Q: What sequence folds into this?
């Protein structure tokens, strides 16, 4: 949903910045790589220490590179298959780092095995949700469903909650509860999304197989 409705807004806002980077000779691939490195650093340095506010600030600065790189490639007319592969592959790396950061916190000083497991579930289910689409498309299906909780929702829900939970360190009482709530929401939402996508792929593959069988039958009859 965010991908559908917020992308146009962020495209407008980020286009001048993307144009500036192109004028400075920066490549879309460099933005993809630096953005991913920044997200990983923010998540894996700050989150395991319980520094959720600063971790979220660092991640937020770098995560928008994922909208800038494609914008640059399109403006410069150099969108490529390699760029699409690099972008999607490094999305998985960045997402893995964010939820690993939460899991490491709960496995350590956060001291909560259940929430550690929920964070690991968010990590794994998010990767599988993305895989369903990539694999479905690779076997020639449209996978005409996005689902309840796509990547943008996973990131916004967990990062807004983490950033706000981090305000506990500045003396705001009780606010740290937002992070566990967000992790449960992302976990449940990812499960629903996974089911939505698997059901769609099952229906689309049955339709495609039936159409192929009908076409073969028609050829054999001629
Ligand atoms: C008192 C202060 C408290 C502190 C609070 C901290 C506030 C922090 C707030 C928010 C931070 C969240 C920002 C998250 C932005 C996420 C942007 C993003 O990168 O989205 C990526 C997404 C998808 O991009 P792609 O098409 O490249 O990726 C595809 C996707 O991954 C598919 O995955 P799947 O969905 O299938 O699981 C893959 O299948 C595919 O391979 C892959 O190509 O892009 C979008 O969706 C575009 C829309 C972005 C919407 C962003 C909304 C941001 C909302 C609020 C931002 C508020 C910012 C406030 C900044 C404050 C800074 C202090
Ligand atoms: N290094 C890159 C990154 C992206 N692209 C192209 O942009 C598309 C993704 O657009 P986003 O707005 O989601 O970043 C991707 O499919 C590629 O076509 C690129 O060429 N090089
Ligand atoms: Mg991108
Ligand atoms: Mg991306």
A:
């Amino acid at each position: 949903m965010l991908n559908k409705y917020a992308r146009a807004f962020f495209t407008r806002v980020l286009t001048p910045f993307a144009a500036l980077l192109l004028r400075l000779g920066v490549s879309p691939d460099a933005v993809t790589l630096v953005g991913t490195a920044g997200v990983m650093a923010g998540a894996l340095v700050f989150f395991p220490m319980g520094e959720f506010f600063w971790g979220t600030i660092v991640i937020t600065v770098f995560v928008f590179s994922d909208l800038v790189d494609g914008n640059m490639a399109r403006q410069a007319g150099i969108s490529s298959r390699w760029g699409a592969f690099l972008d999607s592959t490094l999305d998985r790396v960045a997402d893995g780092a964010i939820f690993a950061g939460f899991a490491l916190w709960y496995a350590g000083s956060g001291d909560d095995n259940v929430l550690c497991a929920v964070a690991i579930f968010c990590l794994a289910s998010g990767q599988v949700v993305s895989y369903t689409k990539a694999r479905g498309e690779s076997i020639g299906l449209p996978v005409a469903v996005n689902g309840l909780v796509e990547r943008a929702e996973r990131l916004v829900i967990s990062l807004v909650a983490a950033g706000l939970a981090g305000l506990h360190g500045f003396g705001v009482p009780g606010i740290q509860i937002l992070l566990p709530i967000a992790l449960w929401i992302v976990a449940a939402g990812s499960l629903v999304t996974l089911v939505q996508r698997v059901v769609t792929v099952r229906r689309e593959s049955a339709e495609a197989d039936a159409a192929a069988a009908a076409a073969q039958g028609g050829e054999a009859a001629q």
